[in-house]
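Researcher: Please predict.
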Amino acid sequence: MTPWLWAFYFVVKIFLHFRGAVRLHFLWNLGLFALVMPLTPRAKPLPKPWRALCAAACVVLGFALFWYDSYLPPFLYSVRFVLKNPDVLTSGFVRQFLAGFSVHLAGLAASAVVLALFVYAGRRGLFATPFVLAALLLVPVQSLREPRDAVSAAVRDFYDSEHSRLVHLPPAAGKPFDVILIHICSLSWDDLDAVGVKNPRLLAGSSYVFTGFNSATSYSTPAALRLLRAPCGQIEHPGLYDPWPADCGLLGQMRASGFKTYAAMNTEKDYFEMAGELQKMAGLDEPLSVAGLAPKLLNFDNHPIYGNGDVLERWWQQRLRSGEPRAALFYNTVSLHGGVHEDRPGWWKSPQLPLYVKTLDDLGADVDALCAAIAASGHSALVLIVPEHGRAIRGSSVQASELRDIPMPAITRVPVAVRFVGPAFTGAPAGRRSGEPISYLALARLIADVLPDPDVAADPARLDKAVAELPETGFLSETQEWKVFRFQGAYYLYGKDKTWRPLPADAAPTAAEAAQ
């Protein structure tokens, strides 16, 4: 009967592969198949002393291969994450995370029926190997229809064209203004749709909202590195951690243009090593101290999160005391991160989306308060609201909710807004939208357009022209292990097997979503 249990294992995986829920690696599975399935109906079993040991080893291999075939993060990466953040095991985050995996009762019932049939077949002495091998061979046959070479060539062309793109920031001139980058963890268009918030306060009052912006990654530090590398075109993920050309650093160019730069976060500055990476690679200033501020929330691992309004107000007062004519701030907030909760026992037992909606509205109010304080002081500012990535509130057949290892379009399509505040921008338009496919280079271009002549933003016609001429960037998102690329109107996924395959339909945006 044991071969039929292995037959059930392979059939389930093959079914999930064709549904798009796993990505079966044919050669590895063929190797396991050769180990566990008898080659002839009368194959002799191993001697008893070895039989149990071999069976146990094959079960371990089968589990490891199933994990490898799945879209879960690499197993060792997951173990390192838990070892590095042991508080997640006791904070309630694991319980909340597991709740993100959907259980389909109809699928379980069908699986139970198939398993019962396979057990019956084993007891009748039927031979399973040809049946399983035929099903397994369907996998490479399917792959012959996929345009892997064409997609690979298009990706190479993408990187080649991005390599030559560069925006130089000119010296600031005219009426002085500040540049404020508000970098937000865990906010995408799909998240807004999932919680039913169509027009969040955070975006209200913006001159332009960019609905076609791709954050190009689904993790925080890479997203911050890409934002702070905005003057240069998009590069592959590993290149973010190599030394940058001097012209690629946004903060360095801002300083050369006449700005005093600052950094602030609503976590402790040494939390999760993000600030250190940004200081090393992007020339970030040491983040403002949060000492003395009262925590407002706790992160998934119970580390304190401070109020956005409190941190922004502390920075604003320090900026006023400096007397500098122009200042630039990079501010990072994790208030919307998955697993963020109030300081109370059993927080994971309550629905978390109402807190997400409230925190999002509070963040909008805090940004409004900062803008009001700037205008009331007679200063002016260009405020850029740039989410790092989405929270992945909704999952798909490829990836459970709250998982972000794969940079799905629903996670990296984020709402980016530009807001012009103060007397330097009197007359700036409000409520406009642009749906062109853009990324970080466009933000550097927009800053470069306004720096030498703030009147560009104060004149609706000139601002509309500047926005229409922003450089476009094709859709390519990536993390260390995964890439998602849009090619000829379809989305393709590159992963552990180092090949491009079509993204399952339920994980790709609809035409309406792509044109939002």
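Model: Residues 2-145 form one domain.
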